[in-house]
Amino acid sequence: MNPAFALAEVVWIVCGRNDSAFLNYFNPNLPRLAGNGATYRGAYGHRLRKHFKIDQLERAYRVLSADCDSRQVVLQIWDSAEDMPREDGTAQAQDVPCNIAALLKLREGHLEWTQIMRSNDLVLGLPHNIVQFSSLQEVLAGWLGVEVGSYHHFTDSLHLYERDAPIADHIALRYLPPNPDSIACPKGISERSFAALAALVDVLSSGDADEGVAAFQSLEVYPTFRAWGAILTADALRRRGAYREMEAVAGECHNACLAMMFERWLRRQRAAQ
């Protein structure tokens, strides 16, 4: 897993965006899987915050703030009108959401999260989906001022494509230091921090190396997110061949877990060259 791409996805989702360029910069192979348009029609954040004419994250925050016993907070991603196959069985589009809904409950001061998947690719999908929605759980817990509870992930069709079998054969448990950082913080600070990270990604994907470094140095976010900015910027510098600057910025990531993930990603990229 490229940690920069995984973090960019979380930022993209929380900000409710669906523009493809935002993610394609960190994963040039994504259009092959999801299409070549200017937007991704199944974008999870856009579905959650804009698609249904309601900001579901905002509403979930307000409902659970007012009624901690509510059992009616369901975040809907699947849109039957747009996502059900045509009558002849063909898909309506290349980018059809695999995540269909999330169920949120407060129990004894903890935010419990249940994620429902219709389909899950074991290699390319599952790891990223867990990062995406467990991060959303942490974000919402911060907004609500509660602890993070358990995360449950249900998949109706968990599968491994034959093309990915060689990758799966080499998956092994590897040591990672614990992630010491929490991204749970008050709603206003959280929203501003994610907006700042999104603005950073916009500069990284369109500007040159110097502009990227300057944008990172001026980044104003909740302290935990500084490490996110470092990883995003370091990977963008790698893609531009600015390796000295990449090493300097990566050195400013003080989250040992993210730093090790990025170092492993670098080794894999070097080995592939």
Describe the protein:
- The structure is a single chain.
- The chain is α/β, with parallel strands linked by helices.
- It has a domain at 41-171: Thymidylate synthase/dCMP hydroxymethylase domain (Thymidylate Synthase, Chain A), CATH 3.30.572.
- It contains 13 helices and six strands.
- It has helices at 3-14, 20-24, 30-34, 44-51, 56-66, 80-83, 126-144, 165-169, 187-206, 209-217, 224-239, 243-250, 256-272; strands at 74-76, 99-107, 110-117, 120-121, 147-155, 158-159.
- It has a four-stranded mixed sheet, with helices on one face. A two-stranded parallel ribbon has the order 4-6.
- Helix 1 (3-14) packs across helix 9, helix 9 packs parallel to helix 11 and helix 11 (224-239) packs antiparallel against helix 12 (243-250).
- The two termini are 17 Å apart.
- The mean pLDDT is 94.
